[in-house]
Design goal:
- The structure holds 2 protein chains of 2 kinds.
- In chain A, 38% of the residues lie in helices and 16% in strands.
- By secondary structure, chain A is of the alpha/beta class.
- In chain A, the strands form 5 sheets. In chain A, strands 1, 2, 3, 6, 7, 12, 13, 14 and 15 form a 9-stranded mixed beta sheet that branches. Chain A has a two-stranded antiparallel ribbon with strand order 4-5.
- In chain A, a hairpin with a 2-residue loop joins strand 4 and strand 5.
- Chain B is mostly helical.
- Chain B has a two-stranded antiparallel sheet with strand order 1-2.
- Chain B is globular.
- The interface between A and B is large, with 35 and 36 residues.
Chain lengths: 567, 305
Amino acid sequence: MKKILKGISLVLAATSVVSLASCFGGGGASNSGGGTQSINKDMTQLYIHNYGGGFGSDWLKAAAKRFEDLHKDDVLEEGKKGIQIVIDSNKKTFAQLKTTMLDDRSEIYFQESASYTQLINEGLVLDISDAVTDNLSAYGDSRSIYDKMNPEQRAYYAIDKNGETHYYAIPHYTGFFGIQYNIDLFNQYGYYFAQTPVGTTLEGKFISKANPKKSVGLDKVEGTSDDGLPTTYDEFFSLCDFIAGSGNVPVSWAGETYLVYLQLMETALWADAEGLEQTMLTFKLDGQANTLSTIQNGQLVKDAQPTQITADNGYELARQAGRYYALKFMDKLMKTDKYHNELCYNGGYTFTSVQEDFLFGGVDGVTKPVAMMLEGSWWQSEASYTFEQMGQVYGNDYLAKNRNFGIMPFPKPTAEMAAQNTGNTMLAAVDSIAYIKSNIADFKKDLAIEFLRFVNTDESLREFTTITNTKKMLDYSMGDDINNLTPYGRNLLTLTAASDIVFPMTQTPVYINNSSELGSIAWFSTKYDSVGKRDCIPVLKETTVSVDTIFTGLYTYKESIWNSIKR
Amino acid sequence: MLKNKTSLKAKNRKDLIYYCLMMALPVLQFCVFWIGVNINAILLAFQKYDFYTNTYTWDIIGCMKEAFETIGSIEGFKWKNSIIIYLVGLVVSTPLTLFFSYYIAKQKIGTSCFKVFLYLPNVISGVVFSTIWIFFAERAIPTYLDKLLNIKIDGLIENVDTRFMAILLFGMFTGFGGGVLMYSNAMSAISPDIIEAANLDGATGIKEFWYITLPLIYPTLSIMIATGVGGIFLSDIGLYLYFGGGAPAEMQTFSYMIMVDTLAAEHPGDYAKLASIGLITTFVVAPMVFGAKYLFKKFGPSTVD
């Protein structure tokens, strides 16, 4: 009996040793994404990790195939010819990746929400300055990656060491959160403001068969994609009233993730109301704040004089008028039941359910049509399976390439601001970067750097956008390839091209040392009673506290913690 | 005789070698993942980290001061929620667990069924089980009530008035399994002779439980309750599974706050502050646990040593 027990325990011990061994090094359990790709032992492998989020990895597979063809005769190792790119696509967070990066087999990383500063400080990334600054003429591209960056990106990614500038990562993609709208439904029901309203009724504000001409929209130019769309918050809610009156659902969002989504929405509204320069103050903590306001006698009153913002008085930015307007918008939207889906706060209503309702609404004969959806610009990639299903069941007219969706330019808080025609400002809701780990094998360094250059050529950038219907955070033109995008992709690119984009990137030490309290969403923490810090969205949802009180509480909270902000 | 002694020594040596080999891995794991991690956390509790320059500096007074300030600024309702959850566990869950354990130990009708339901949360992943409950509470129950009884309600978790109770009750249900396992095993170890003697003396049912079973499992019970005192700082009824990092403020507990802050920590500096808080709470919890254990020993049944 004892011998049997010994034997069993030895087997168990051996099992645990085997499972331990599989946790370390290349080809281990942490690289499960590459499990379906067989390794070709006659070729040199280049291992790439891709964050498998909404944008998927089809773009990377397409680029990898072209790169492999280009290098099919390369000999980097004795007895091997050609390059095989092995892609590991999963949703590991940066925090999870960071701890094992130097031991994992992945050599190049395309990762969301990675901390550039942390990567450098901990010696995890390779210096890729040459990849960034050398032009891409070998690929018929006259510019370098550096040339395609905007000034904020150049300042952010450039790290000064001993008087020399070094680069350790390259911008990858971004996404924007906003009001996705069903253009087909808008066309079907005439959910557009008329250029000349008829009478004083709600219906009279909108186009009809007798009055088909749309208003010119925020850009004041007739014949553009924003014609007929609401230009002010009041118009937006009139639109919601109109849609609800017609029996459809004006706005929908995922109840399961309502907190995050509504936080993204309020920050996006804030950025658009403030504009690029004022929004960037929050991250730079340096500059002149022109929109600071207080509540006086129930009214929002702008400061008579601008305030010079520094790291010492940065909390004053909690009083930006854009925050007040964003809160007002969210308050009305969240508290008016007829404006949104009844499951918008239900934990069982997932983002895929919302997307399905948005796509199936009015098509399947059961789901109520949904006019607008609060989602990120990545939604169409996420819903690709649903589109395919619809195509199979209802025909090709229901594939993504044949359905019209768009992202609505945010209306302005007031008619006065809409009349100023300040343009759109879009806040980057996700950030991602590409980098190479520092301990990549020497003989593969040049190859990895070459791959990063390759995926950032104009051809690769256009291919990325064609496949994902979203833009990389670099400057490039789609040219005729724009016709290969879905209608939503074209709409998104048109809007982003016409907008100021806020990339919340800064090397300001105060921001980097306190990013958990100085990020966009963190500025919407309020304090107005003894309970302490609260996030604005649950307060709006579950209490009757006024927007005025919440807005004042933003300043109260930020001021109270400012002394603990590390400078 | 000498040959027997020699072979016995060799056998003992072999047994010893085998034992050491088997224990090496768990001991190593304990040293690294418990001792090492805790020592590291204690050292981190006294350091400050500058993310921008990637440097650590020792600042014992500063770190403790900041930690005390942070603990002092924690909202009262978080402590209140933590205590409520602990007390519900102590006053409601523990007696129910004892009852279920007694029922199972007595092999009454439906014992196997009880075991399955009570152990299920410990077998299935907590994330899966909570997800099932979320969909059940949010979609299934309102739909059933609407279709069957024409009663329209919001989801139990969506509804502010029912949310806390829905999560608390589910938390209680998922917590039964571990306690039932411990108590039912302890009850099963009671000698049948004692039970038989008690039955002969007329102590059956509740009397048997109160006068015989409970005193005899008292050591197990006292350890469970004494160590559970630390639950004031550890209880969060799985809020993260329901709300991620955005649980409604009024429902948050101390433990949830620490968890969310840990997950939100973006660099070692944030961990240092949390380590300081953890160290201070350890100095609070440890005496409470030892004190509870002492009280249980002092005022426990005299028949139990």
